[in-house]
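worker-3 :: picked Chromate transporter
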Amino acid sequence: MKESYIGRLIEILIVSLRLGLTSFGGPVAHLGYFREEYVERRKWLKENEYADLVALCQFLPGPASSQVGIGIGIIRAGIPGGIISFLGFTTPSVIILILAAVGFQQQGWVDIGVVDGLKIVAAAVVAHAIIGMGQNSAPDKLRATIAAASFIILILLPQTWMQISVIAGAALLGIFIYKQEESGNKASFTVQISQKTAYISLGLFFGLLAFLPIVREWTDFLWIQMFDSFYRAGALVFGGGHVVLPLLEREVVPAGLVTEEIFLAGYGAAQAVPGPLFTFASYLGMAANGIPGALIATAAIFLPAFLLVIGTFPFWMKLSTYTKARAALKGVNAAVIGILLAAFYDPIFTSAINSVVDLAFAVSLFVLLMYWKVPAWKIVLLGIGGGMLVHFI
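worker-3 :: tokens ->
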């Protein structure tokens, strides 16, 4: 039993590390990579279970893709599995961005077509994920209509609060439309987290959020100030990585931790690395206060994600077995498809597809991924090579 559990942890580390090295394109693309690996290839979750997990993480503030990865690790091997899944997925981009912070002291970011190629990869991966998830989450005309309405609302009103409103509205519609149906498809997995642990986790989340600013006012200790700034950014931002960037800018630039020039250079680098965009905090921490600053900033910005997933998981899984809750989830899962589609359009499609050559390349990668079943990591390598080739032609 013990050896089997350790082997499971090692497997989680290997798989998540590979995803951390190859998952380019931002949080929406990450959900596509995760689905490809964990649902289609390894079958650690069923399609409806993965959709439920994504729906939960859409409800929570913080880095949605990282929270999904943590959740999958917890489902597979408890809280240690969640920690290892997080470390594997996050460590590569942390290291790269720490090195970038050092490298920007001598030279700028050199673009040789790699970034453009990776953006096109992201477009292909996200399109594949939307189609696969849509077949399960929006299979009938009512849920397809909810997905389409969510997409339309969010491209017209792309504010973060509107995304939350769309999810809440879809939940109410789901209860109204599907309340008479059998709950069916109950989650077939269990989580190794007690309610006591969940309560402690939620208490820590809200306690740190309330008391860190007070402690910060009592001291001028730089590390406390940094931890407070990055913890608040991770705790209060809905909508994923790109949304946290302006909040971080307001926290670190006026305070003199980094210059505007260093901040913008790091933002460019963050677009080109795999893994979660929240690791931009590692870059900022390194630029502000070296290795200790990088470790503090990274721990602080991701800690809320851990506390929220651990704190909500047991209650979410119990709630998901009730008929009305399952009805609400049907609406929410359909809305998530619309949210992913809106994110696919902007910023992924609008920034990646700038010519007919880009479009042709994206369609080619999509066909290889969707129909020829080429692994996602090979699609990444093809994207990098294709981007460099187009750049030099």
